[in-house]
Amino acid sequence: MKNKNKSKKKKLTILYTLLAILVVVVLVFFFGSRKEKIKHPSGSMISRAGDEQAQKIPMKKVTLFFLSESDNLLHPEEREIPESTINQEARVVVEELIKGSNSGRLNTLPAKTQVRQVFVTSDGTAYVDLSRDIIEASYYGSTGEMAAVYSIINSLTYNFSLIKKVFLLVEGNERETLGGHIDLSRPFVADYSLVAR
Question: Of 14, 61, 134, 157, which residue is most buried, by most CB within 10 angstroms?
Answer without folding.
Answer: 134
